[in-house]
Structure formats: C-alpha cells, structure tokens
Specification:
CATH class of the largest domain: Alpha Beta
Cofactor: [4Fe-4S] cluster
Bound molecules: 1,3-dihydroxyacetonephosphate, iron/sulfur cluster
GO molecular function: 4 iron, 4 sulfur cluster binding; metal ion binding; methyltransferase activity; quinolinate synthetase A activity
Number of strands: 12
Organism: Kangiella koreensis (strain DSM 16069 / JCM 12317 / KCTC 12182 / SW-125)
Keywords: 4Fe-4S, Cytoplasm, Iron, Iron-sulfur, Metal-binding, Methyltransferase, Pyridine nucleotide biosynthesis, Transferase
Number of helices: 15
Oligomer: single chain
Largest sheet: 4 strands, parallel
Shape: globular
CATH superfamily of the largest domain: NadA-like
CATH architecture of the largest domain: 3-Layer(aba) Sandwich
Catalytic activity: iminosuccinate + dihydroxyacetone phosphate = quinolinate + phosphate + 2 H2O + H(+)
Strand order of the largest sheet: 2-1-3-4
Radius of gyration: 19 Å
Length: 319
Amino acid sequence: ADEKNHHRSLIVELLKRHNAVLIAHYYTDPEIQSLAEETGGFVGDSLEMAKFGARHPAETLIIAGVKFMGETAKILSPEKRVLMPTLEATCSLDLGCPIEPFSEFCDQHPDREVVVYANTSAAVKARADWVVTSSIAVDVLEYLAEQGKKIIWGPDKHLGRYIQQKTGADMLLWQGACIVHDEFKFNALEQCMALYPEAAVLVHPESPQNIVDLADFVGSTSQLIKAAKELPNKQVIVATDKGIFYKMQQAAPEKELIIAPTAGEGATCRSCAHCPWMKMNVLQLLSQVFERDDNEIFVDHDLAEKALIPLQKMVNFAN
Ligand code: 13P
Ligand code: SF4
C-alpha cells in the first residue's frame, strides 16, 4: 500500500509539472480510473476519450487504455505529446485486422463504403471512409443505409452482425473478434440468470449473438452504465470487462453488480472478464511515463493525415 501511495503522489506531482492530463478507459483498473478523476482528468468510453483529449488545453495527454486510443488522440491532436504507460497494450481486434489483407478485401469491393471500428491501427483507419465506436455504430450505419450505401465493415464480426440486424444495412463483415467478449458463454449466463432471476442483463455488442439474445439492454460502455442506473432492477448482470464496475457502481450505488461468467461452466465468474491489455496500465508504469523514451505515440505523417478524415467525421457525427 505504501508503494502504491508513493506512485500515486508522484503521478499527481508529475502531471502538474508537465502540464499533462490523464485520460483513462473504463476497463482500466480502479486505481487508474480514480487517479484520472482526482487529477482533473477523465474516465470514459473510447469516443469520449477521443473528444476530451482533442479539446483539452494540456500540452501532454497520458492515455491509459490500449494503443489505438493513443493513436486516435495523436491523430486528432498532432501538436500534443501523447504518452502511454506502455505501448505493448494492444487489442485483439487491431491485431486481427492487418492493413494488407484488409486493404485487399476493400479493393475487391470498390462499390462499398469502408466503415471501421475505432479498435484498429492508424493504417486501417486511413483506408476507411468512416470510423465509428460502439456508441455511434448503429446510428452511423442507419444513416448510410438510408442513403442506399453498401458497406464493408471491420474488424469485429459480432458488432458487425449486431448492427446489420438493427439497421438492415448491406454489410460484408471482416471476421475479427474481441478475445474478452468472445468468452461469454450462453449456458453459464443462463445459469447465472437463474440464480438472479430479477436481474437485468446488460451486454456489450462485441459479445456473440447468443449472449446478445439474452440481453435486456445492449450498448457501448457508457450506454451500459446509464442503463444500470436507469433500469428499475436492483441487480444487474453485466457482460463486458469488469473494469466498468468502478464507474457503474458510482453511477448506481444501490445496485448489485454481477459480472457475467466467462468460464463456460458454472453460474458465477471464475476467470472474470478483464482485458489482458487494459490490465497492463499499472501505477508503476504510469509513474515512469515521463522518464522513459519508449512510450510516446508517433503516427506516420501521411497515414495520420488520411486517418484524420474519417476520425473527424466520427467526432462530428457524435456532436
Ligand atoms: P467502448 O467504445 O464502448 O468504450 O469500447 C471500447 C472497447 O475496447 C470495447 O472492448
Ligand atoms: Fe480490444 Fe476487447 Fe481489450 Fe476492448 S476488451 S481493448 S476490444 S481486446
């Protein structure tokens, strides 16, 4: 505990000295999220993080999350320095969608608009017409479908299928998945629901179809927090990364939050859903963020210019 307190006070002091602000995702550990809150920084979903960073006057943005979030911050604010506790924190969706095969896939269907999830590399974003996050994906695809546009969607196959069903858009799907959400299992969730029959079931749309089918509410991280607060149920079962419980419990202090099981058997969680890359954002690395020289985000100039176009559309669409 002493060591943690030491890291915390060091970080508070360094943020001030370097005119820096800490921006954390809901899936990082509570001690990172609370530090962002206490230092005038921000905790939110990937779209809110992007907007907050772009608008904030600090010279340096510290992004606690995964690499695509740091790259998005840098592309939106090229004049700012963007640091991360570690650049090793990636995402299975980003890893599962390398630019060469994805670009070939797009080339094979030149009549289609390319819409990609924010969980992608700068190069994939540069190849896209639109970038979306889960909080605006359905609305953007509805808007494009109304104009009769045909779509290539990547990389998350579950989110793609969910949007397709919601909007009726004509979409070709890249076959990527999130290793965290892909682990929620139907039988185990049904058993969990039997244990808590009064509970509402909240599901992130990166989850498989049979999990989404059991949901009372499907939405992005911020939308799930809002639903936990607003639904009348006293208990909620949540199928997303357990890091979200920190802010969800703040928003709904009187509710009992239950994480959906991932182990494939049994009704309660054994190896609770927690992203291995989000977990890499630890206090110790954060306290060294200014002294190391291997954790600054740089994006190739040409790629950044191209990726800025669909990213700007993302930010503007949500306004
Ligand atoms: P949100 O856009 O809902 O924050 O999701 C990002 C993410 O990585 C989900 O796994
Ligand atoms: Fe990527 Fe899934 Fe981790 Fe989100 S939870 S960063 S989608 S691997």
